[in-house]
Amino acid sequence: QTVVTQEPSFSVSPGGTVTLTCGLTSGSVSTTYYPSWYQQSPGQAPRTLIYSTNTRSSGVPDRFSGSILGNKAALTITGAQADDESDYYCVLYMGGGIWVFGGGTKLTVL
Amino acid sequence: EVQLVESGGGLVQRGGSLRLSCAASGFTFSSYWMSWVRQAPGKGLEWVANMKQDGSEKYYVDSVKGRFNISRDNAKNSLFLQINSLRAEDTAVYYCARVRVRNTSSYLFYFDSWGQGTLVTVSS
């Protein structure tokens, strides 16, 4: 069974830079998994941030960026702000009409 | 503006059934794959099912196969999820999401718009 891994939690100082990752328990994440990233604040619907590894969704500030780092997909937030404190989810397209979400990372800005 | 509005959630007994609906507006519904994604209380997101534009292809996460059925009515710009044989672990907020499969030049495979969700609670 394919499991998509994310750090359960992370903290960053205001103005700092943080990189969240998205991996696989077996194998490497590549662009062929079309990794995408979503931000979710408590009680809210997810918001699409990044798709196709590194393309920002409409209206997303350029301090959010996506990439492949080593064998994982990565979401980097540069110049973190207080309202970036949220849960962040990656999802990978596994082919055959199937997607698998990671468990999410709870980001604290303090 | 793309809008997705879910409805049909509620409290249901274990073993019962429920039909969720998603009303779409602001875009040509019949041109998009659509998905259901759920989130159990305090847990992460889980992709549940999706359906091709014309309904000819459907896919499900293993845990719901044989119990859930995704369908759509393109004439009414609506997506549905029939949930049968409900279990405690089906308790979740169910989100309707629009899927972008590709643009004119490349594949994309992501969820670009989300509804606000509808809560399904399964009681024992």
Describe this structure in words.
The complex is a heterodimer of chains A (110) and B (124). Chain A is mainly beta. Helix content of chain A is 0%, strand content 53%. Chain A is built from no helices and 11 strands. In chain B, the strands form 2 sheets. In chain B, strands 2, 4, 5, 6, 9, 10 and 11 form a 7-stranded mixed beta sheet that branches. Chain B has a 4-stranded antiparallel beta sheet with strand order 1-3-8-7, with no helix packed on it. Chain B is globular, with a radius of gyration of 14 Å. The model of chain B has no long low-confidence stretch (mean pLDDT 97). At the A-B interface, strand 4, strand 5, strand 9 and strand 10 of A face strand 5 and strand 10 of B.
What are its keywords?
heterodimer; A: 110 residues; mainly beta; seven-stranded mixed β-sheet; four-stranded antiparallel β-sheet; 0% helix; B: 124 residues; 11 strands; 57% strand
List the helices and strands and how they pair.
The complex is a heterodimer of chains A (110) and B (124).
Chain A: E1 4-6, E2 9-12, E3 17-24, E4 36-40, E5 47-51, E6 55-56, E7 64-69, E8 72-78, E9 87-95, E10 98-101, E11 105-109
Parallel strand pairs in A: 2-11
Antiparallel strand pairs in A: 1-3, 3-8, 4-5, 4-9, 5-6, 7-8, 9-10, 9-11
Chain B: E1 3-7, E2 10-13, E3 18-25, E4 33-39, E5 45-51, E6 58-60, E7 68-73, E8 78-83, E9 92-102, E10 107-114, E11 118-123
Parallel strand pairs in B: 2-11
Antiparallel strand pairs in B: 1-3, 3-8, 4-5, 4-9, 5-6, 7-8, 9-10, 9-11
